[in-house]
Design goal:
Blueprint lengths: L7 E4 L8 H10 L4 E4 L9 H15 L2 E5 L12 E4 L6 H8 L4 E6 L2 H9 L4 E4 L16 H14 L6 E4 L7 H5 L5 E4 L1 H4 L4 H12 L1
Parallel strand pairs: 1-2, 1-8, 2-3, 3-4, 4-5, 5-6, 6-7, 7-8
Helix pairs in contact: 1-2
Pathway: Cofactor biosynthesis; thiamine diphosphate biosynthesis
GO molecular function: thiamine-phosphate diphosphorylase activity
Pfam families: TMP-TENI
């Protein structure tokens, strides 16, 4: 089942000056149509209230709500899908577990990872990191513009139709060269939610991508 995937994914994050709820609210009022809730600090007793509140905001504004991992919470709120960060996750089993209706996205750092996600039925892929990011510290190789260009070229050669979103340390100034590589879209967090004016930062990303 082919899913609609938005070209700009806003990812909430654990930051000191804005709650996940506030981040989602500001993004939606700026026009966001895709919110990825990524919370690493709350436990299973705290997550449902947070997700339900953000789901209500997304419903009010017509935005898709994707939850990072936490697939065991499926059904507890109006969640449209999940993003799985484990690059070794079995997406065939995840699809059997979650069903066809939900959107399931995965993370990859190599072309081989993208090919596997496509073969196992992922609806989209977050491909990165583009550049150094403190939002999601890791020791994976940075892709840079050339890494995306090569990957998109190889996917095209293999006629693999998978929406690929660049992620990781992306600023508004990176968007034009990234989109010129043939990627589908951009996923962003810190460049938006840590900006002096989060709404303006979101709009700056949106205008360049759309």
């Amino acid at each position: 089942m082919k899913k609609f995937i938005e070209k700009l994914h806003f990812i909430t994050h654990d930051i000191e000056h804005l709650s996940h709820l506030e981040q989602a609210q500001i993004a939606c009022t700026a026009g966001a149509k895709w919110i990825q809730y990524r919370c690493l600090t709350k436990n299973d007793n705290e997550l449902p209230a947070d997700i339900n509140a953000i789901a209500e905001i997304c419903d009010d504004w017509g935005a898709t709500l994707i939850v990072t991992d936490h697939v065991h919470l499926n059904g507890m709120a109006d969640i449209q899908g999940f993003h799985i960060e484990d690059m070794a996750a079995d997406f065939v089993k995840l699809r059997q577990q979650l069903g066809e209706a939900l959107t399931i996205g995965g993370s990859a750092n190599t072309v081989e990872g993208l090919i596997r996600l496509a073969a196992e039925g992922a609806d989209y892929a977050g491909f990165g990191p583009f550049y150094t990011t403190l939002t999601k510290p890791n020791d994976l190789p940075l892709l840079g513009i050339e890494g995306y260009r090569k990957a998109m070229g190889l996917l095209k050669e293999k006629t693999i139709d998978l929406p690929v979103l660049a992620v990781g340390g992306i600023t508004a100034n990176d968007i034009d060269p990234l989109m010129n590589t043939g990627i589908f879209g951009i996923a962003a967090s810190a460049a938006i939610n840590r900006a002096d004016d989060m709404r303006e930062a979101y709009l700056s990303f949106y205008d360049r991508i759309m």
